[in-house]
Amino acid sequence: MSGFEELTNRLVGFAAARQWERFHTPKNLAMALAGEAGELVTELQWLSDAEIRDELAAGPLRERLADEAADVLLYLLQLCHACGIDLETAANAKIDRNEHRFPPQQEDRS
Q1: In the predicted model, what is the mean pLDDT of residues 71-84?
Q2: Domains and CATH numbers, the chain
């Protein structure tokens, strides 16, 4: 069992214990995912690259980003579960397509 499968199973059990399944429709989960992605962006929105680097080194920003990134991942896993998508397989297939579409640049040796 992959890590994604284990997380998904935990999420399914978490939602079932609270009787939240009826709210976990693809549309609702996609909207929640977009909201969480927005919260992730908000943490970085007005900071320069140097400020981000400094605040990541200090720690609190890293913790906030970790929480928001986890929220994004968890909603994405729930969305994929609701739609019958194997996220790991889909991600690998996408990388395969991108490797074909965007081959490495060949150094010009002429």
Answers
A1: 97
A2: 3-88 (1.10.287.1080)
